[in-house]
Amino acid sequence: MAMAIALVVIVVASVLFHFLSPWWATPLASNWKQMDDTLTITLVITGVFFIVINLFIGYIAWRFRHGAPRQNGQNGHRAGYHPENRKLEIWLTVGTAFGVMALLAPGLFVYADYVRPPRDAMVMEVIGQQWQWAFRFPGKSGQLGTSDPRFISGTNPLGLNPDDPRGQDNVVISGPEVHLPLNRPVKVLLRSRDVLHDFYVPPFRARMNMVPGMVTSFWFTPTQAGRFEILCAQLCGVGHYNMRGMVVVEDQAAFDAWLAKQPTFAMTLAKAAAPPPPAPAGAAGGANAALIETGRALAQSKGCAGCHSIDGNPGVGPTWKGLFGRTETFADGSSAPVDDAFLKEEITDPQARLVKGFGPVMPKIPLTDDEIGALTAYIRAQGSGEGAGAAPPESASAGAPAGATAAAETSSQAASAASGTYTTSNAAVVPPSASPRAATK
Ligand code: HEC
Ligand SMILES: [Cu+2]
């Protein structure tokens, strides 16, 4: 009896929860209403079966309970034994087969559409790496150049083929914010530089795994202007929760203007090859500024920025703001002043000493001495006022909350990506205290 009541309560509570729940999907912002329809079909079919089966079991448990009165006035039931029932078996088999077909078939049709882009779709490449996003658009020629992991370097983080003429005018966006024009189909090509990631923008109802060694693809048409958050939907390592970005959907004119301001691949190569600019009078010197800029690019391309912010908010690792010149305390209670030698040691052998309050998760990333020098110069520029005159623009925005300075583009990208203070389309702000450090302190 209690069992029967419990089952009825579970069914009623589930149905009520479904209709009264405040947790609904974000408003649809793309052409993929079919995704929602497919989900609704699944929910209705499984929901009906859930209700019917549980109420049936409840009824049977009550109707044939041991203590139920019998015709002859006595109490106590003994179940009948019916090992075969052809008619019932045929009904159940046919019914289940149709149910399963109804669950699977709509998805097959939608998926077939999902991976077959319209001919006039524009192309956007998305590259994932632990724990950041980068993007590439074809330039005027309308073609993407080839790419290969062996071309990846500090100045060519996406591994584009420098000898491919089709790649020279490709537009490279190495920060987490990308723009798209409204109402234009986009074919999305997805690559990963390291592990499995998944490009996911919930309001677009669109996502796809990014698999190292292959290019995956789907398409969608943004149908609402606005800012939409990109999430990584595969647990891709300790910085996974920080792997976020932004799609800004705007009209074609605004998009064209934005795209025209982004550097082409040829421009980034030329900039890297150019001799350092002449030293500004009085300041720390042009060579130093160029070194800091190289360090900034390396922090992005080697993935340091995924764990280390420059805005003062701890991420997976300690922030680099104000690090240089400070005295650092280790987990074992000892301490040491942060100077060049300290930084070099931390970077080359992260497991040797553990900074207090953090986990032993920093990977050993192979770096040349020159690269370590550049990274050290960059970290030095974030700290203690010393060398601040030569620091690139991010020192200007470093003190402000990352979310508020999204306009500072590349410089604050590292900071906001690492500190996790993005304002999302549904206004959820992740405070810095949500970082794992708070828990371990
Ligand atoms: C997976 C996240 C992660 C990545 C990627 C990462 N670090 Fe770290 N880093 C940490 C953590 C966690 C600590 C603190 C624990 C420790 O000492 O190992 C740390 C500590 C440091 C420290 C010492 C900081 C201090 O406060 O004393 C330096 C310097 C540093 N990392 C530089 C780098 C550089 C340079 C890179 C890129 C080449 C990098 N890290 C990449 C997580 C990371
Ligand atoms: Cu990821």
TrEMBL record:
Q: How does it sit in the membrane?
A: Multi-pass membrane protein
InterPro entries, per database record = CcO_II (IPR045187), CcO_II-like_C (IPR002429), Copper_CuA (IPR001505), Cupredoxin (IPR008972), Cyt_c-like_dom (IPR009056), Cyt_c-like_dom_sf (IPR036909), Cyt_c_oxidase_su2_TM_sf (IPR036257)
Species for this entry: Cupriavidus yeoncheonensis
PANTHER family per the UniProt record, alphabetical: CYTOCHROME C OXIDASE SUBUNIT 2 (PTHR22888:SF9), CYTOCHROME C OXIDASE, SUBUNIT II (PTHR22888)
What are the Cytochrome c domain coordinates in residue numbering?
290-383
Root EC class: translocase
Primary location: membrane
User: Which key words tag this protein in UniProt?
Assistant: Copper, Electron transport, Heme, Iron, Membrane, Metal-binding, Translocase, Transmembrane, Transmembrane helix, Transport
Region: Disordered; residue ranges are 384-441
Listed GO biological process terms: ATP synthesis coupled electron transport
Q: Where is the composition biased (Low complexity)?
A: 389-441
Q: What is its EC number?
A: 7.1.1.9
What name appears for this protein in its UniProt entry? cytochrome-c oxidase
Q: Where in the cell is it found?
A: Membrane; Periplasm
Q: Which domain of life is it from?
A: Bacteria
The protein's annotated catalytic reaction(s) are: 4 Fe(II)-[cytochrome c] + O2 + 8 H(+)(in) = 4 Fe(III)-[cytochrome c] + 2 H2O + 4 H(+)(out)
Q: Where are the transmembrane segments?
A: 39-62, 90-112
Family that this chain belongs to: Belongs to the cytochrome c oxidase subunit 2 family.
